[in-house]
Amino acid sequence: MRRALAFSTFAMLAACSHVALRPPEVPAPDRYTTAPVTQTAGTSVPGGQAQVFTSGADIPAQWWVLFRSPKLDALVREALDASPTLAQAEAKLRQAQEDLNARSDATTLPKVDAKLSANRVDIPAGALGGPGLPIKAPLNLYLATVSVSYTLDVFGATRNELASLRSAVDYQHYEVEAARLMLAGNVVTTAIREASLRAQLADTGEMIALQSRQLAIAERMESAGGAAHADVVSQQAELAKSRASLPDLRKALLQAHHRLAVYTGRPPGALDLPEFTLEELQLPAELPLSLPSELARQRPDIRAAEALLQEAAARVGVATANLYPQFTLSANAGSLASIASDLFKSGSGFYLLGASIAQPLFHGGELQAKRRSAVAAYDQAAAAYRETVLSGWQNVADTLRALESDADKVKERAEAATRSQDFERIASARYDAGGVSLVMVIDAQRKLRSARLDQTQAVADRYADSAALLQALGGGWWKDESASR
Q: What are the C-alpha distances in Å from 277 to residues 37, 200, 246, 417, 485?
C-alpha cells in the first residue's frame, strides 16, 4: 500500500510537471491582400459591370440567389435534398451523436445488473473430513442478485472522454455544413460552365460556317488563277483547327450535364435537367466581404479543424487521468434458497457494500508514453488548425485577385470585340461600295466571332469566381434554419 501511494504521488507530480496545453495563436490580419480590394473595373457589356466588395456585409444563407436565376435556385435546392454525398455526411453525424449518447449513458449513470441462477450441488460427506453434513446432498441452490456499480470520475477521465466525443459530433456537424457548401458551389459552377460551353459551341459553329465560306471562295479563286494554292491550304488548316475544337467542347458539355445529374441524385443520362445560358444569369453587382477576423467562425472547414483540436485536447486529458487511481463503488443485494419458491421469502436475503481502488503500478512507461503521444497529436492538430486558417485567408485573397483580373480581362476582350465589330462594319460597307472583296468581309466576320468567343469565356470566369468568393467566405451556412444543428 505504501508503494502504491508513493507511486500515485509520483505520477500526479509527473503529470502536473507538463506544460499546460495552449491553443494555437493565429493573429488575424486587417485585410486579405496587400492592397485593399474595394471595386473591380467595369465595362458596358452583359456580365461586364463593376463589382463592389462590401466589407463586413452579411452573406445570405442561400448565396446562390445572388445570380438571380430561378432555375439555378431550384436546382441547388434539389441537390441539397437529394444528393447521396450529403446523405452520407448526415448519416456520419447521426452515428457520432449516437456514439456520444451511448457512452454518456454508460459513464454518467450507475450500472445496474440483475442475475438469476440455479445450480445443482453435490458434496461428498467425507470430502470435508467431518462425520456428515446437516443437509442432504446433492441439493439445488437458487440465487437472485442485483448489482450496482459506479466509477467515480475523480481525475476527469470520463469527463474528457465525453468531451472528445462531443468534439467528434461537432466535427461531423461542420463536415455536413462543408459538404452542403461544396455541393451548392459545385452545382453553381457546373451550371455556369455548362452555359459557357453552350455559348462557345454556338460561337464556334458560326466561326466554322464563316471559315467554310472563306475556304470555298479561296478554292474558286485558285481554280480561276486568282489565288495561290498556299492560301487555300492556310484556309483549310484554320477550318480544320476550328472543327477539331468541337469534340472537346461537346464532351465537356455532356460531362457537365452528367455532373449536374449526379449532384441531384439522378443517373447521368437524365433528360429532365434544365439548360443554362449566360444571358439568364446576372453577375452580382455587390459582393459581401467578411472581415478576416470573422472568417474563422464562418468557414466550416476551419470550425471542423477547431473541433479536431478540441478532441485532441480531450484525449490528452484522458491519457493524463489514466495515470491516476480509479475509484469504484459497488453494492450487491440478493436472495439465496434451496427451493425456488423460498427465493424471495423473508430470511433468504443478503447484501454486500464495497469500494475498490485501482492504481497503475508498473506498466513499463506505457502510460507516460501514451500521454506524450496524445500531446504530440494535439500539437499536430494545432498546426493543422493554423494551416487551415491561413489557407482560408489565402483562398479569399486569391479569389479577390482573380475577380480583379477577370474584370480587367472582360474589359480588354470587350474592347477587342468592339474593335472587331467596327472593322467588320467598315469591311461590309466597303464591300457594298465595291472597294473590297467578299473574302475580306468574311475574314472580318470571323475575327469578330473569335473576339466574342474570348469575351464569353472571360465573362463566364467572372461568374465562376464570384461563386468561388462566396464559397471561400463560408456561404452563410450559420443562417440557414434548414441546415443540421
A: 29, 11, 18, 20, 36
Closest residue by Cα to residue 313 from 366, 369, 382? 382
Angle at 107 between CA 167 and CA 374, to 5 degrees: 45
Cis peptide before 138 (omega within 30 of 0): yes
Dump pLDDT digits (tens) for 87-135.
999 999 999 999 988 888 777 767 777 787 777 766 665 555 555 556 5
CA 375/CA 388 separation, integer angstroms: 20
Do residues 72 and 277 make contact, with C-beta atoms less than 8 angstroms apart?
no
Type of residue found at 380: Q
111-121 vs 286-289, strand pairing mode: unpaired
- Could you give the C-alpha distances from 19 to 15, 16, 106, 307, 367, in angstroms and in order? 9, 8, 32, 22, 17
pLDDT-based confidence at residue 17 (cuts at 50, 70, 90): very low
The domain defined by 2-15+27-479 carries CATH number 1.20.1600.10: yes
Residue 45 is classified by DSSP as S
Q: How much is the pTM?
A: 0.81
The answer to whether the beta carbons of residues 314 and 323 sit under 8 Å apart is no
